[in-house]
Design brief:
By secondary structure, the chain is of the alpha/beta class. It has nine helices and eleven strands.
């Protein structure tokens, strides 16, 4: 039977990496301070590394008091500790290639959550930001760079059309991430979500609104498989 660490308020899945290839990740938002501190301390003790999403600056400050090496990105809201794995700097190192594209600059926080997730799990990431369909020449100018990737993450709000455009340009899988960026009729990302799941372009799959982490995780799985097949 798989093991876990009992903390009463949390059951830390210590065997997850063995089963799935990925260690447990902490969703920080909404967790009481004392619970989050306990979880981070235990995970650090077990693995020497922790990856947390949707963290606030307050949560960073309280974790920093007990784990001085913790790192926080205000844009992506990633709160991580990495003490025994070689850090991956902006996609310079890592295996394969994942392209992360955004419709606009306002989509970057979700895109960075995806990109940092993929990098943390060992992938090489290429960021291609602000190439939305209102200036179609921008994404067309980057088409060759996008085609080099094993997998493409497309992050877009408003009407979410960028996923369809890129889906028609590349031969590899596209993971579409609708964001809550947009005016009233975008309905908090629902318009982009509906556009993406109704795309006529082939090879597109869609994750939940603002779910950069989910996109980064699946992209890493695809990237790993692609690199394994090339060997």
């Amino acid at each position: 039977m798989d093991k876990y660490d009992e903390l009463q308020y949390a059951k830390l899945d210590t065997d997850r990496e063995k089963r799935t290839g990925f260690p447990e990740v902490v969703f920080c938002e909404g967790k009481p301070d004392e619970y989050l501190i306990g979880i981070y301390k235990k995970l650090l003790e077990n693995d020497g590394q922790i990856f947390g999403t949707r963290a606030s600056e307050h949560q960073y400050e309280i974790i920093k008091e007990v784990i001085p090496d913790v790192q926080y990105n205000k844009v992506s809201r990633i709160l991580k500790v990495d003490t025994h794995i070689k850090p991956i700097k902006q996609g310079v190192d890592g295996i394969g290639l994942i392209a992360v594209c955004t419709g606009g600059t306002a989509d970057i926080p979700v895109a960075e959550e995806a990109a940092e997730t993929a990098e943390y799990f060992g992938g090489r990431v290429r960021r291609i930001y602000d190439v939305g369909v209102s200036g179609i020449h921008r994404v067309l100018s980057k088409a060759d760079e996008i085609r080099e990737a094993n997998c493409v993450i497309v992050v877009a709000g408003m009407e979410g059309a960028l996923a369809s455009v890129i889906g028609g340009l590349v031969s590899n899988p596209v993971i579409a991430v609708p964001t809550s960026v947009g005016y009233g009729a975008s309905m908090g990302g629902l318009s982009a979500l509906l556009t993406m799941i109704n795309s006529c372009a082939n090879g597109i799959t869609v994750v939940n609104i603002d779910n950069g982490y989910g996109a980064g995780y699946v992209a890493t799985q695809i990237n790993r498989l692609a690199e394994r097949c090339d060997k």
